[in-house]
Amino acid sequence: MHGSSSYQTRLKALPGKIAEDWPKATLSDLTEDKARHQRLVVKCIFWMMMGGEWLSDSDAAILTGWRTNASFFILPRFVQRLAFNFGINKIKQLRIDTVKVIERRRQQDLFFEMNNALPPRFRRDTVVQLCDETMYAVGFAGIGGTCAMCETTAAFMQKQLPDEFPSGQVNFGGYDSKAKMIEAYKKDNRAYLKECCRIDPPVTSATSVLKENQDIILNGVWKEFQAGTLRQYTLSLANRDEKTFEQPKVFNPLRTDLNQALTWNGAYGTPGDEKNYPRICPGRYLSLDVATAIFDLVVNNEPVPKNHDLHMQSLTAQS
C-alpha cells in the first residue's frame, strides 16, 4: 500500500486537508485540545486507508474511542468481571459503531473486494465479519497507536511529559527549549518521531503463546514452561536496554542506535527488518506518514522566539 500511486497521491494531498481542518494549529493547541487532536489523527488515518474519505467531526469522535478506551483492552478477565463487564461492553459497542461509520461513508465495497481477494480458506462467511476484524486492527493499533505517538511528540516538543508517563524516565539533555526541539524536528523529522516513540512507545508490551515446551531462565533459575503458556515481552524496557542504547534515558534524535528500538514490534530501519522480525507492524509507514504530515505543518505555525535569529546566527558562526 505504501508504495502505490494512490497512496502517494493521498499522502501528497494530506497536508492541505490538515490545514483546512485545523488552520494555524500550534503545539499548545494539540496538548490543550486533546479531543480535537485525536479527531484529526483519526481523519488522517481514515483518509489514507479508505480511499481519500475525510470524516466529519461526529464520525471522527466515534473512532477516537479506540484511543480513549485503550485501558479497557488490557484489563484481565477477572477485573472485567469485577467491573460487571463495563469495559467489554464499551468495546463491543465501539466495534458496532465503527462498522456503522464504514456503512455511513459507503466504504462497504472495499471490504467486499478484500474478502473476494482472499484465498478461499481465509474468506469470511460474511463481509461484515471481515470489516469488524480489520477495523479492530486499524482502530486499536493504527488509530490508538498513532494518537499516542502524536500526543507524546506534542508534549516532548514543549518539554512536557505526556499523560501516564512516569517522571524521571526521560532527560531532555541539550534540547532544553521548545525552539531547540523544533530545530531538531526540522533537521530530521522521522528520527525525531522515532526517538519520541523509543522513549515512550505507543504499545508498551505484547503477548505471544509458546508453541512448544521451553526452558527459560527466570531470575537465574531454569524453569520449564508448557506449550500454550502466555508470555509477554516488554517493548518499553527493551527500548531502554543499556546494552543496546547509550544513555537510554537521554532524549537524542541524533543517536546512532535509534533503529535498534523495537517500537513497531521490530527493529524498524535495520537491514532486513521484515525478514528478521516477522511480526513487525505493517502500518509503521502509515503511522509515521500521518504524524509527519501533522507536525510538519504545526511546527511551521509556531511563533518564532525573539532570540531565535540571534541563536541561528550563533549556530551559523560556530559551523
Give the helix proportion (percent range). 55-70%
Pattern of helices and strands:
HHHHHHHHHHHHEEEEHHHH
Q: Kindly, what is the distance between the CA atoms of the first and last residues, rounded to a whole number of angstroms?
A: 41 Å
Secondary structure: number of strands = 4
And the CATH topology? Answer: Cytochrome p450
User: Whole-number average pLDDT?
Assistant: 91
Overall geometry comes to: globular
Low-pLDDT ranges: none
Strand order of the largest sheet: 1-4
The first-level CATH class name: Mainly Alpha
Query: Which structural class fits the helix and strand makeup?
Result: mainly alpha
Number of helices: 16
